[in-house]
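As a warm-up, study this chain.
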Amino acid sequence: MRFKNRYIAFQLISDPCEPRCVNEGLNMAAVTGSIKKSLQTNFGDMTAGLGANLTLKYFSPMTGVGILRVPREIYKECWAAMSLVQYISSEGGKTPCILSVFHVSGTIKQSQINTAEHSRREIAALQSTLQLSDVKTKSLLSQSEKTIMSLSI
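Now compare it with the structure written out below.
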């Protein structure tokens, strides 16, 4: 029997007052560590042990969009723990943030489709906020879509 997983698509909002703020100092390890720490703090050692194999499949610091693979048995606890994260600890210090879940799926394919669509909307919003050139925007879109769709289980 195989282990069944859920894929949680989320957006990291690093400045709640300014949702379109880009924080490129964040990395996958820092985000995963903060989620695991929140899981342990809020749900105890048993749930943290079940969540030991959480995997961040994709994360873009530019858009703040990511996909987290979690065991099916504790996906609700992981969702709650993500909502309770208040900051991400990285090399640059603590970054206050909010993790907002926008999709939960049983397959990576459906999660990829929804994440790519959400990422497109975020890049379009970033283009107007940060005055990105059309070339830069197209480059970000193609790179983001290519990376998201190339994810494997």
